[in-house]
Design a protein that fits this description.
mainly alpha, Serine Threonine Protein Phosphatase 5, Tetratricopeptide repeat, globular
Amino acid sequence: MNRFVRSLPLALAALLVSNVAIAAQTSAGQTAAPQDPAMALVKEASALNREGKQAEALARYRQAIKMSPNLFEAHAGAGATLDVMGEYKQARE
């Protein structure tokens, strides 16, 4: 089994976790306050990922990380995107 097939479940799990976290924030009413610009980038990146635009998604995740270095969703999304792109070593950094 090649590395891509073995790492696919991990990448999908990380995308799921980041999407669940975004959905939890929305349902918790946290969108009533002014939206965090870094989280807005994460949401854009997530949408781009779903459209198969991984390079654009990764750029958004990296922008979010620069704005908010401790934002879990940005790191998880970037790692999952890198994994899908076949950049396994970078994904685990």
